[in-house]
Design a protein that fits this description.
Blueprint: H1 2-135
């Protein structure tokens, strides 16, 4: 009975040591699990932060695309206005050329009429001289 009692108390000691080791391992496992949970939570928080930054960047990109489209529309409008102005300038140039031709024609006709008037004035002077000679 003493041998069984010694064996039994020895077995209890081993069981107690094994129990302590199990408790220590369990505490380590719980601590490691807590660390893993904290790490996962940090990574989850970082993923959420990155998703928010991504949404913000996508919003900014959409706004920038909208601004680019607006600038393209303005450029197209200005190009159309420029084309319209170029057409108007060409029309005014043709009108100016036509008016200049009319002015040149008028000036030529005016010079011709001035010469004609000078010629007629000479004829009148000659006629008056002849009349004065005939009368006088």
């Amino acid at each position: 009975f003493a041998a069984v009692a010694t064996q039994s108390s020895g077995s209890s000691g081993i069981n107690a040591e094994y129990g302590v080791l199990l408790m220590q391992e369990r505490a380590k496992a719980i601590s490691r699990a807590d660390e893993l949970i904290d790490s996962v939570q940090e990574k989850t928080d970082r993923v959420i932060q990155l998703e928010n930054e991504k949404r913000d960047l996508q919003s900014r990109l959409t706004l920038a695309d909208s601004e680019i489209d607006s600038l393209h529309d303005q450029r197209d409008s200005l190009t159309t206005e420029k084309t319209d102005l170029e057409v108007e300038v060409e029309k005014l140039r043709r009108e100016n050329d036509s008016l200049q031709n009319a002015i040149d024609t008028f000036e030529a006709a005016f010079e011709y009429k001035e010469k004609e008037i000078e010629g007629l004035q000479r004829q009148i002077e000659e006629f008056n001289l002849e009349m004065d000679e005939l009368v006088g």
